[in-house]
Amino acid sequence: MSLWHATRVPRSTRSDRRARSRTHQKLVTDLERLARLQPGGSPDRPIEVASVAQIEVIATRNPCPLCEGSLQLLEHAQETVDGVRLRVVRLSCTACAVPRAVWFRVREPLQS
Asked: In the prediction, which pLDDT does 111 show?
């Protein structure tokens, strides 16, 4: 037996690949769940801003929670959720192409 055969690492079996795939999918699911719990991750947790002009800057400055890639703006819209007017920014990761939505609420101006 040659030295090459003695030190060769055995190839992954199909069951090993499936197990790694399941583990990876669980990680992605957990990261998605955590992203929804962050400020702006859902309509229940909007980020409060003073001006509409801040929204796109804030939404695009954070990296993708799955792969740390940069996020590209797709849409900036206004929606009403449970009677509350919110802004939603829809984004897509430039690396993994996962869609993302970040929710905002514009503070009412103070009356003087």
From this structure: 62
What are the structure tokens assigned to 60, written together?
A: 């695009």
Beta-bridge partner residues of 84: 81
Model-level pTM? 0.76
Map residue 17 onto helix, strand or coil.
helix
Q: How far apart are CA 104 and CA 91, in angstroms?
A: 14
**CB-based contact 62:96 (threshold 8 Å):** no
- DSSP letter (8 states) at residue 35: H
Please tell me the total number of residues recorded for the chain in this structure: 112
pLDDT tens digit sequence for 73-98: 999 999 999 999 999 999 999 999 99
What are the residues whose beta carbons fall under 8 Å from the beta carbon of 41, sequence distance 6 or more? 35, 102, 103
Give the torsion sign (CA, 25, 35, 88, 59).
negative
* H or E stretch at 90: strand 84-93
In what order do the strands lie in the sheet containing 47-49?
47-49, 99-106, 84-93, 71-81
Q: Which helix (H) or strand (E) holds 96?
A: none
